[in-house]
Structure formats: structure tokens, C-alpha cells
Amino acid sequence: MFIDFHTHTKLSKKVDFSLAYFKKMIRSARRNGLTALALTEHFNTTKFEDIFDTLDQHFHYNGHYYDVDGFKVFTGMEIDIRETGHNLIIGHRDDIRTIRARFANNTKKSTFPTFDQLFNVVEGFDVIKIGAHPTRESTPLLHLGNEKLQRYDAFDLNGKDVAKQPGTEEKLKELGVSLNKPVVAGSDSHLPVQFGCVKNKFYTDCETIEQLREAMVNRQYDLVVSDHAALKVNTARFVKRTIKMVRHV
Questions:
Q1: Who contacts 113 (Cβ-Cβ below 8 Å, separation ≥6)?
Q2: Which CATH superfamily is domain 2-247 in?
Q3: Separation of alpha carbons 87 and 47, rounded Å
């Protein structure tokens, strides 16, 4: 199974969810060798609830993922914390909905939950907690300290950082070793072209959140970094900037 653990289905937080754009993203994911992904849209995106509402209308939810013509879409979201930093929470659709509702009044920068507030909630659910791009210069996690970092299940080898910050892969692997935590790849795609810059090759075909977690913990996967990662990320960045300027989104 080839899976990407950090993906988006909107160009930006300001636009509404589009089923047509979602399908376009899945087609690109397939073309780039993926068979599954975790959909981790920002928790403070416009009309977050519309995403799952629309997917419920068009695709079968098979226990822990949407079955999109044989392609697995696990559910999740990306949550900011007040101390600075992003967190990927992946779990059952209903759990993600519940967690999102708990933080419905914390979607502005001044009201983001603290690390402890977030983790005290999510640790009550069967979810995978991934520290998103922990060494990114603008939104790091390392400042939280090892005690808090130990509460993550894994850390995100982020495609954007691989392309823009030399040495990211080595730093993430060192972090994983120092804390005895797995490192898994996430493209951070907002556009189809970015898929495939990084991905994970799992040795088994996982069907549940527990199976994903077990495969991570037992290191039953390989990280795959594309030789064209920088080209993919830079192209996506240019296209996104252009579209946002034209559409004012």
C-alpha cells in the first residue's frame, strides 16, 4: 500500500469544498502511485463540515476510510496550536467530526488550543497523532520539548520542507531515532501536481486506524522521496500563488 499522510482537498482555506476538485486530486494521487491517503484538511477551513457531508453522499465509508473506486481515503484534519505548530489527527470519521466540534470556537489564531488542551482531548479517541513538519522554520514543534513530543505517535516528513529546507530528511530521521518515534511522509498537497513528492510504501494493506498505527510502530514501511520533489513542490507553489491572485482566494 502506498499512502500519503498529509493531504488537503482545497486550494486554500477560503474556498468551498468542491467534489470535482476532490476527484481531480484523487486521480492525480493514483497517477503518482498512491493507493491511499489521509485527508487532513485544516480544522479552520471554510465550512469544514461540508467535506465529510459531501463525501458521505457520494462514497461508501468502509469502517475507517472512504472507498473512492478502490482508492482509500482515511479521514483526519490539521490543527494549529497556540504555542505555534501544526498537528495531524487521523481517525474514524465520527471521531474527527467530534474533535472538530470540540474546537469549533478555537479556529482563530488568538483562540487556538494549547498543546495540552488539544492532546487532553484527542488522547481520549483512537486516533493517530502526527507532529506536522516539526522542523519547519515558520511552524516548528521542537520548541515544545521532549516531554510533549513523546505524546505524538509519529512525525511528518513533509514534502514542502524536503524541497525547500535542505537536510530536512536527515533531521527528521534523527528526531525519530532520538525519541524512538516513526517518521512518515506527507506531501502537504493542495494541488494535484504535488502528489508523489513523498510517500510511504507499507508492506501490508491496512484497513483500519489500528493497523496503520501498528505498521508505523513496527516500522513496516519505507519512506519514498521523489527525485522530482523540488520540481513538484515549486510548481505547485507557483500555480497556487497565481490562482489565488487571479481568484482572490
A1: 79, 81, 82, 103, 106, 121
A2: Metal-dependent hydrolases (3.20.20.140)
A3: 19
| CB distance 122 to 88 below 8 Å | no
- In the block, residue with C-alpha cell 486550494: 11
Low-confidence ranges of the chain (pLDDT < 70): 249
- For residue range 111-140, list pLDDT tens digits in order: 999 999 999 999 999 999 999 999 999 999
Dihedral over Cα of 62, 67, 69, 70: its sign: negative
Backbone angles phi, psi at 141, to 5 degrees: -125, -15
Distances (CA, A) of 6 to 18, 73, 128, 145, 204: 19, 11, 12, 23, 20
- How far apart (Å, rounded) are the C-alpha atoms in residues 36 and 74? 8
Sort residue 14 into left (φ over 0), alpha (ψ -120 to 50) or beta: alpha
> CA 135, 124, 83 angle in degrees (round to 5)?
30
Q: How many residues does the chain have?
A: 249
Would you tell me how many other CB atoms lie within 10 Å of the CB of residue 97?
16
Whole-number pLDDT of residue 249: 67
Residue 242 has a pLDDT of 87
Cell of 195: 502528489
Q: Alpha-carbon distance 234 to 240, whole Å?
A: 10
The position carrying cell 470519521 is 93
Grid coordinates belonging to 73? 481515503
State how far Cα 222 lies from the chain centre: 18
Structural domain boundaries of the chain?
A: 2-247
- The whole-number pLDDT of residue 121 equals 98
Alpha carbon separation from 208 to 66, 126, 128 (Å, rounded): 11, 11, 11
